[in-house]
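User: My instructor asked us to take a sequence, write out its structure as tokens, and then describe one feature of it. I'm not sure where to start. Here is the sequence I was given:
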Amino acid sequence: MSHDKASLRTPSGDLYLAADIGGTTSRFALFEDRGDTMRLRGVERIPTSEADSFRDLLCLLRNGPLGPEVPRCRAGALAVAGAVQGGVQAAPPNIPWDIDIRSANLSGLPETVILLNDFAAQAYACKTTALDRAVTINAGQPDERGMAGVIGAGTGLGHGMLAPLPGGGFLALPSEAGHAAFAFVNQEEAVFEDFVRRELGLDYVFAEAVVAGQGLTLLHWFHFGQRLRPEEVAATLDDDSPVCAWFARFYGRACRQFALNILATGGMVVAGGVAAKNPVLVRHPEFWREFTDNPNYRALLQDIPVVLNTNEDSGLWGAALAAKLATGRQGTEN
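Assistant: Let's start with the prediction itself. The structure tokens for your sequence are:
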């Protein structure tokens, strides 16, 4: 576990607990609301594998450096990498245990606790300063009344969207599009598709199988016959690498599919650790060529703003905003 050295001084505003529970790392943070600003006061990162259950994870939080202040929080939002059902339970595909806030021991947590999908939290993050340093991939022509999409490859492939509401306001929504079948488009890709189905024992290849960390492993294995961890593959990437070109193409395709599915004229945000750590994967020419490759809507796709979110903690900012909104408080956080 690690703890960022943000100040834990006595707060002058309300505190909110935010969590981003992922397949690899679970992050917890305290945010202080000062009316027109939300300030990060402390972060704790716990390898998700250290917890044998959701109950264990909460125990690690209570016994960690943030634990004493958590009960003082006005509300908490727990974002999880998986579909949330009924607002209370989830069976995350990349975590070996389920989450149900109805039966969990929530003592020591805020009185109000909500559960949401991690990419709904990433959508909320678009309304905070967490994306202030996002890198522009395509400036485009943003439609302020249009839907915005968020997609991110990490341990899995998350999707979320931000819908503007008539008269102002917005609605953050999750998606599990990463588990829909992925489209392979030529004979060379069909050979790779068969390779992935065989190696992973799948009936069909879904997007998360290839546009995520394990996709780097599979592509390197396919091209070079050597099985490496994603981070080892990443260390070999450059513009001339077939792994880089193929992954960039697949990522661009996943982004295009989602942009068309939700008509993301408000913009697309590429999030997740894979691209944040390896920007070459979305800067490669294959990403943009594939993103705009559509016979009917090429011009529309070229007008969609696309940015790379390099802030790997942005989901915490989004969760904090969701926690604040859960108390009935309004306003965009800065």
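For the description part of your assignment, you could build on this observation: The chain has twelve helices and 15 strands. Try explaining in your own words what that tells you about the chain.
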